[in-house]
Request: fold
Amino acid sequence: MRLATTQMATVTSQAIRDSGTRWLFSPTAHEPCPDPRAVTAQPALTPPLALDYLRELSADIRAGVVLSADGALLAGPEELAGAAHDLMTAAGEAAAEVHVSTAEGAVYAARSEQHTVAVVCGRFALPSLIRYDLRLVLADLGGGERPEAA
Amino acid sequence: MPRIPRKPTAPRPRGAVGAVAAGLARRKAAREPRVVLTDRGGHPRTLAADDPAAAPLLEAAERLISAVQRGSAP
Reply:
């Protein structure tokens, strides 16, 4: 039993060392990160993960897509990509967010310099929450600062 | 500044009948198409349903909703 406990601790410490985060647990953790690029080089979120994250944030979201700035599909069903691109094109360059609700449901879309995210929701989704979630995901996708809560 | 006299309005139903009528009106309003565009500064602009600029947005949104309802999208 004691051997197993010792073994587990060793495996954990080896994993920490291999992941490059050992400085976090060291006595010098209060000092600045030795290589900040190691922490911030990659965006926090990938397009497929962004859609999963959105669905976890809101049960009202039925489906969604992530597009690149030029309209290429990055994540989500291909059937939605064309219509989502048309939606943002029709909204014009000045529009950063679009909300269209009909008798059957609602569509929310938001874009940043790099990405566009569009989601289809039920009629009773709360617009301010969905729009905030979209802005949050766009910020994470682009590696920028998260928006403040309204 | 002199106060402008109120225009007379049609009498509204009160009580239970009024509540039911108001509920029906709210349900009808909730089902009407609505288009809101927000600029980068966070300023929203609501387009009227009969606005020519709203037509392509409504059409694209209906395509998205139809695709999801058909079950083609997860």
